[in-house]
Amino acid sequence: MTIDSETDVERTRSGATPPGSDETNVRVQETILDTTYDLLIGKGYAEVTTDDIAAAARVSKATIYRHWQTKQELVVAAARRHFGRVDAPDLGSFAAEIELILEHRLGDYREPGTLRLVGSLVGAAASDPQLLAVFTEWVELLSRAIRRAIQRGIARGDVQPEVDIVALETVIAGIVARAVVAQHSVTTTTVNSIVALISKAAAPPNG
Q1: What whole-number distance in Å separates Cα of residue 109 and Cα of residue 88?
Q2: When you count CB atoms within 10 A of the terminal residue's CB, does the N or C end of the chain come out lower?
Q3: How far apart are the first and last CA of the chain?
């Protein structure tokens, strides 16, 4: 979903949308974010510069820095835009909720270049506090969604009440982490098999 940035900029210049309006600012920001993401997918974090982004988005660097103070802030914003929140409503079963959570996140990683991008960001985060903060946030959001699914499973009786929630959460989240580390996407068929195994292991003895 890449916006035609040249069209947006030309509209602004021609006066079709008043410069500085909220609508124009939103469109320009979306253009910059989508352009940033596309460049990151194609070249990787280390190879993309603010100059590259400005040229590809057909905006000035001053426009970029008006909204994001650093390249890291822009990259974080672009990543957040394309990797949304992971959660599951009450679907009536632990298996269904875990399947939705895993399929959501791992489905994102099936897009060409995405695993390489995430891997490069993980590497950069080791020495960059801003990138580290966003990964910490992503991990916590995923963990929180998994914990809620486990707690609902315990409440409805399809997860054993004495289960170690932290251990079970770690196992499930580790599937996502492995995909990034191994740079290997996980198919829907494999997700279904993993969910079946986890659900069986977590079920009450007589469940």
Answers
A1: 18
A2: N
A3: 44
